[in-house]
Design brief:
Length: about 190
């Protein structure tokens, strides 16, 4: 009977050791995945309508990941193959960081540039779409590639209600500046009389 208890006890120890080893391997893999996720960059390419004028569009490249992105390169190709799209691609290539790439973007850092005025030839430009393929690397050397579609038809029907606060503030400051100049001129003329 003591031999069967010893065999049973040995079997239980062996099974628990195997289970413990399997759990350790699982936890090791999860720790590696978490470490990669904690250093993984994610480059996003999009456009933003400028606040001061609804027809002006900026191109924004940002690192929305938690790790630094290195050696960022861009390649654009048309979705709608027409003259306005080709013109937009030429405008895009004129932005130096889109042409030459970026060496590094830290987490939450972005590169932003004026891109185009969609009110110029707007009927055709608003029907334009193109893809931007972006390739980049993490600090560990892992390579990534993502592709984004920039489709200006999303702007059709876009409206802004009221005047942007920065516009109102700028107009108010201009008005105040004019008032100060008028008062200063009056002060000089009164000083000249006295």
């Amino acid at each position: 009977m003591s031999e069967s208890v010893a065999v049973l006890f040995s079997t239980l120890v062996t099974v628990s050791t195997v289970i413990s080893a399997a759990l350790t391997l699982f936890l090791l893999r999860e720790t590696r995945r978490m470490r990669h996720a904690a250093t993984e960059p994610k480059i996003d390419v999009s456009y933003v309508v400028r606040e001061e004028w609804i027809a002006h569009v900026d191109l924004v490249v940002r690192n929305i990941g938690v790790g630094g992105a290195y050696d960022i390169r861009f390649a654009a190709s048309p979705v709608t193959d027409d003259a306005p799209t080709r013109d937009l691609l030429r405008e895009l290539a004129a932005i130096n960081f889109m042409h030459a790439g970026l060496h590094y973007l830290s987490p939450n850092q972005h590169a932003r540039s004026y891109f185009t005025n969609v009110s110029e030839d707007h009927r055709r430009k608003l029907n334009s779409a193109f893809r931007v393929k972006v390739t980049y690397a993490s600090g560990e050397g892992r390579r990534y590639d993502d592709e984004y579609c920039i489709d200006f038809s999303e702007l059709i029907g876009l409206r802004r209600i009221g005047e942007p606060p920065l516009h109102r503030l700028a107009k108010t400051l201009e008005s105040l500046q004019e008032d100060v100049h008028v008062l200063a001129a009056r002060g000089k003329s009164h000083a000249g009389r006295g």
